[in-house]
Amino acid sequence: MKKLVLLAWLLCISDRVAAQGLNQAFQITPENARANVGDSVNLQFRVRLDERDLLLDTVPRPVGSLPNGVRVLSVEKMHRTPDRIFHGRAWLAFYRPGRQPLPVFSLPFMRIVEGMRQATIRSDSAFINVVPILPAGNPPLKDIRELEREPPPWAPLAIVALLITGLFLALRRRRRRAATVATRPELVHDLPQPPAEPYGIALEKLTRIEREHWPAKGEVARHYQAVADVLRDYLEAAEAIPARERTTGEVVWALPPHLSERELRQRFHELLIEADLVKFARARPGPSEARRFLEQSRSLLSEWHEARSPEEAADAVR
């Protein structure tokens, strides 16, 4: 019995490896073999897939964490040429000198004929020589301008006095305005109401989707699409990201830094991939999985909302 289980496991692994490696290639080549520290390095992507394969995303992304001293500036959407080869570009910056390995990029795909739900193809290895800008050692600094004259010692006190005066005048004008409104109650109804906050709108939409019970009615694809659209609409309203117009990979890499910390970017990408599988690969999860998908989306929205600074939230309301 154990031998049969082991044999079945080996066959499964061999099928998975063959599905990912047969007639596939992901080449990554730097435009220049040498670059200065901090320069923008152009990388060329070339991807060849098996004729049975279908890309689930057209924007490559690094595998795991980036090495120290490496920063991804931008990643371009890949385009397919008539020979069925995908081409794309990315721009990176290297801040450590020496022979540096290029990050490994990956793309998700699926093979419809063999029933594979999702797999990834990874780029091959490549290197680039990063040249320091300054010579080795501690060369003396040259052409340093003379230090500018320091401001007089009373300058900070004058600045503080101006700030206090401006604050006093602003509070005085606000009190006069409030007193005028209080004496004329009819003006209170004419004041413009503040717009609804994007986070509250998103939560209300998720609540309405939950009440529809679409998975129980056989409309699983509609449920997943609506929840994913709520996440994209929140990014458009709160962060001015045109999320509805971008693919999964493009909108994931468009996230600002405060929405990408603590694996928030990875969780958002997994939710969009799950919705894409339902939409394009005709995956049909059950009602319990659909509820889990909605709850994970609601939790991600909450963490996005908490990650925004008070100043950003105040600006969004104004």
Give the SSE map.
Layout (H helix, E strand, L loop, with lengths): L1 H20 L3 E6 L3 E3 L3 E9 L4 E3 L5 E2 L7 E6 L3 E2 L4 E10 L3 E4 L3 E7 L7 E4 L4 E5 L23 H29 L14 H15 L7 H20 L8 H6 L10 H17 L6 H21 L2 H8 L1
Parallel strand pairs: 2-12
Antiparallel strand pairs: 1-3, 3-8, 4-10, 5-10, 6-8, 7-8, 9-12, 10-11
Helix pairs in contact: 3-4, 3-7, 4-6, 4-7, 6-7
Structural class from helices and strands? alpha+beta
- Bin the helical content: 40-55%
Apparent shape = flat
Would you report the number of β strands?
12
Order of helix and strand elements from N to C terminus: HEEEEEEEEEEEEHHHHHHH
Radius of gyration: 28 Å
Tell me the strand percentage band. Answer: 15-25%
| Arithmetic mean pLDDT | 80
Instruction: Give the distance, in angstroms, between the N- and C-terminal Cα atoms.
Output: 69 Å
Q: Major β-sheet, in short?
A: 5 strands, antiparallel
Number of domains: 2
Low-confidence stretches: 7-21, 313-318
The number of helical elements comes to 8
Outline the structure in words.
The protein has eight helices and twelve strands. The chain has 318 residues and is an alpha+beta fold. The strands form three sheets. Strands 1, 3, 6, 7 and 8 form a five-stranded antiparallel sheet that branches. Strands 4, 5, 10 and 11 form a four-stranded antiparallel sheet that branches. Helix 4 (220-239) runs antiparallel to helix 6. The longest helix is centred in the middle third of the chain and has 29 residues, at 155-183. The model is unreliable at 7-21 and 313-318 (pLDDT under 50).
